[in-house]
Write a structure and sequence with these properties.
Elements (H helix, E strand, L loop, with lengths): L20 H13 L18 E5 L7 H4 L7 H13 L2 E3 L9 E3 L2 E5 L12 H16 L6 E5 L1 H10 L14 E3 L5 E5 L4 H5 L5 H12 L4
Parallel strand pairs: 1-4, 1-5, 5-7
Antiparallel strand pairs: 2-3, 6-7
Length: 218
């Protein structure tokens, strides 16, 4: 079932995607300094049969940009992946050095923008340029029923995907949004070091939202 529009957006960019000059330059600089890192447009991770799509903003420099897997290797992944294992959305072992030791069950993880930005700052044009891949990713998941936005900016990007007014679907931790003609959207505070170290987001708070998103049925 096509959830967005009947156009043929590709779900994944090429690793050497050339569309955003600033991000390409930063990627090339990192390739020079860290030739053993992935340094490319990070692909989505998870099965095509997923009913839940978890959406972050962009790869971390020393996380996904290094490991080629969304959230793997950064602080946010240290909460995300153990939570997915705990609630049955993943099987195996969370190990940065052995990414093949973990697989996802009925969920997929992606980012609104697939390339790491300098200083973790994106331009609005870069978010817009990468949007067709997010649309294509959702269109390529025939069983998609729920979305989990990790952080406000991921939420706002999804609002733009569906051409919805942000004031009608305000971001809030634990919010559940019934999107017109689309999947159900859940929001969570970003599982960043700042939020978890200050107690703004606890493991229990995060787990509750993940469980709620995973509970959406066909």
């Amino acid at each position: 079932m096509t959830l967005i529009a009947p156009h043929a957006n590709q779900p994944e960019p090429a690793a050497d995607c050339p569309l955003c000059p600033r991000l390409v330059e930063f990627r090339n600089d990192n390739q020079t300094v860290h030739p053993d890192w992935f340094n490319g447009a990070v692909p989505s991770f998870g099965p095509e049969s997923a009913r839940l799509l978890i959406v972050g903003l962009a790869p971390g420099l020393k996380g996904a940009n290094r490991t080629s897997r969304p959230f793997l290797g950064d602080h946010a992944g240290d909460l995300l992946y153990p939570t997915l294992l705990k609630v049955g959305l993943a099987r195996g072992t969370h190990d940065v050095d052995r990414p093949e030791a973990l697989r996802l069950v009925d969920c997929m993880i992606t980012n609104a923008v697939r390339c790491v930005p300098p200083q973790n700052k994106l331009t609005s044009l870069e978010v817009k340029t990468c949007r067709p891949f997010l649309i294509g990713r959702m269109d390529a998941l025939p069983r998609l029923r729920a979305l989990l936005a990790i952080g406000r900016i991921a939420h706002d990007s999804l609002m733009d995907v569906f051409d919805l007014k942000k004031r009608d679907f305000p971001f809030a931790h634990g919010a559940r949004h019934e999107l017109p003609n689309g999947p159900i959207l859940f929001d969570t505070f970003h599982c960043s070091r700042l939020n978890t170290n200050t107690g703004r987001l606890t493991p229990e708070m995060f787990e509750a939202v993940v469980v709620a998103a995973a509970s959406v049925k066909d």
